[in-house]
Each structure stands twice: as C-alpha cells, then as structure tokens.
Design brief:
The protein is mainly α and 87 residues long. The chain is 98% helix and 0% strand. The longest helix has 85 residues. The radius of gyration is 37 Å and the shape is rod-shaped. It starts with a helix and ends with a helix. The mean pLDDT is 90.
C-alpha cells in the first residue's frame, strides 16, 4: 500500500513536471513568436519608408526635369528678346 502511494505521488510529480515543462516551452515559443513579429513589423516599417523615399525621389526628379525645361524655355525666350532688341 505504501509503495502504491509513493508511485502515485511520484507519477503526480512527474505529471506536474511535464506540465511545467510544457508551459515553459509554450512561453518560450510565445516569446520567440513575439520577437519574430516585432522584427517583421520593423522590416515592414523600413520597407514602407523606402517606398516613401522612392516616391519622393521620383517627384523630385520630375520637378527637376520640369525646372530644367522651364529654364531652357526661359533662356530661349531671353535670347529671342535680346535678338529683337538688337534689331
């Protein structure tokens, strides 16, 4: 009878230890997943920043191109006016 009680207590102890180990494993897994999620969020933010910068660069380049065209047009008009003035 004593042996049976010892075995039952031992089994309960093992079962408790197994549950505790499983709980610790789940906690660690959860922590790992949270860390991965944060890393993915950071990557997503960086990707979005890059997209925004690319769009800003494109707009800047378009503006610069338009400015160059306007400058050329203005220079041509100025030359034309100077020529008319000389005549």
């Amino acid at each position: 009878m004593q042996k049976k009680k010892e075995l039952q207590q031992n089994m309960r102890g093992q079962t408790f230890q197994q549950y505790e180990n499983e709980l610790n494993n789940l906690r660690q897994s959860n922590n790992d997943k949270q860390k991965q999620y944060k890393e993915l969020e950071e990557r997503k933010n960086i990707f979005n920043q890059i997209k925004t910068l690319e769009e800003e660069l494109k707009q800047y380049e378009e503006t610069e191109e338009n400015n160059q065209k306007n400058l050329q047009t203005s220079e041509s008009e100025l030359k034309s006016l100077q020529f008319e003035n000389k005549s």
